[in-house]
Amino acid sequence: MKKSETKNKLLEVTKELLKSGCGINTITARMISEKAGTNLAMINYYFQSKDALLKLVVDELISEEFNQSAIFDDTEKSAKERLQEILFHVCVATIKFRELTTVTIQY
User: Fold this and answer.
1) pLDDT (average), residues 82-90
2) Which among 27, 25, 99, 101 has a CA at the least distance from the CA of 62?
3) CB 58 within 8 A of CB 103
4) Most distant CA pair in the chain, distance
5) CA 68: distance to chain centroid?
6) DSSP label of 105
7) Which of 21, 24, 44, 90 is surrounded by the fewest CB atoms within 10 Å?
8) CB neighbour class for 41 (10 Å; exposed up to 12, middle 13-18, buried from 19)
9) What pLDDT score does 35 carry?
10) Residue 71 predicted with pLDDT over 70
């Protein structure tokens, strides 16, 4: 596997584990590396730690949630109304991903 393929596979597998309902506290580095078919050390090589990998994937999941929303496309509303919608969406996403966002707080 090429370097970029290995890194992308680790990201993909971690995202799959989170989306499949695996609790963030139950996912282990060994679980990720085995499912990705890579050496366990590759997680630290590419991401410095399992927590940093999880944080990156959680950020990506939340970003996807925001990109699916049309709140940024509505330019007919006032800036105040758009800001209120964005803040509301942040709260909804935080609640939806409450277990995942606890990992990102320290970052």
Assistant:
1) 84
2) 101
3) yes
4) 52
5) 15
6) T
7) 21
8) exposed
9) 95
10) no
CA distance 74 to 84: 13
Query: What DSSP line would sit under 16-83, residue for residue?
Result: HHHHTT--TTT--HHHHHHHHTS-THHHHHHHSSHHHHHHHHHHHHHHHHHHHS-TTT--SS-HHHHH
Q: Contact at 8 Å (CB) between 55 and 107?
A: yes
Q: Which two tokens stand for residue 44?
A: 């630290």
Contact 101, 58 (CB under 8 A): yes
Question: Residue 84 has what DSSP assignment?
Answer: H
Q: Which tokens hold the place of 38?
A: 């890579």
Distance (Å) of CA 55 to CA 5, 59, 61, 79, 104:
20, 6, 10, 30, 5
Say how many Å lie between the first and final Cα of the chain, rounded. 30
pLDDT tens figures, 16-45: 998 888 888 889 999 999 999 999 999 999
